[in-house]
Hints:
The chain has seven helices and nine strands; from the N terminus they run H-H-E-E-H-E-H-E-H-E-E-H-E-E-E-H. By secondary structure, it is α/β, with parallel strands linked by helices. Helix 1 packs antiparallel against helix 2 and helix 2 packs across helix 4.
Amino acid sequence: MNFDLARHNMVVEQLERRGIRDPRVLEAMEWVPREEFVPYDLMDLAYEDRALPIGLEQTISQPYTVAYMCQEARIKADDKVLEIGTGSGYGAAVLSLLTREVHTVERIADLYRTARERLTAFGRGNVHTHLDDGTLGLPSEAPFDAILVTAGAESLPAAYQEQLADGGRLVIPIGPPASQQMIRLTRHGDQLTRDNLGSFGFVPLISDVARQ
Length: 212
Ligand code: SAH
C-alpha cells in the first residue's frame, strides 16, 4: 500500500473538499503518518474516512475530526496546548507540528505507554505525555492557549475554563455518548463566548474522580 498517496488523497478528499482551510492544519495532516498510530493489523485502513478501534474500547478519531478540532481551536505557532485523551497519540502528533508545546493526558495506562512510544518515534520533542484523569485538566501546567478534549463529556467540566489563558480556546464535545455537540468557548478576560461547531460522535470522557 502506498501510504503517502493515500495520505495525500485523504487531505484532498476528506479535508479540503469538506472545508478544512487552515493551511497549517492541512500541512500537518499531510505530514503525520497515521498508519503508524493505528494497530498493526488495521494499517491498510489508516486513511479511511472513519475512526478506528485502538483496543480497550477506545478509538483513534476520524481524520476530519482531528483536523476540524485543530482548525477551530485556532492554534498558533507559539501556543501552549492541552489535549485530553491521548488515545493513539495521533492527535498529539498533529498538534506537535502546529505549535511549540503540547501536553496530552490519557487515563488508560496501556494506551498511554503505546502512544508515548509512538510519539517518541515520531521525534518531535515538544509533546509531554501524562497518565492521569484529564477531567481535572492539568493544573500544574495551566494556563493553556488551547484545550482540545477528544472524548465526549456529559456536561462541561469546570476545570477546563479555569485553565484557559486570556484569549484561550476550549474545544469540547458535550452531550450523550456518541451524539455530542462540539462547543468552542473563548476566554476574553472574565467573559467566555460560546460557538456551536456541530454534531460529532466520541467515546465518553470518563471521570475517575467521580467513581471514587
Ligand atoms: N486524540 C485521540 C483520540 C482518543 S479517543 C487520538 O488521536 O487517537 C479518547 C481517549 O480519551 C481514549 O483514549 C480514552 O481512554 C481517553 N479518556 C477518556 N476519559 C479520559 C479522562 N478522564 N482523562 C484522560 N483521558 C481520557
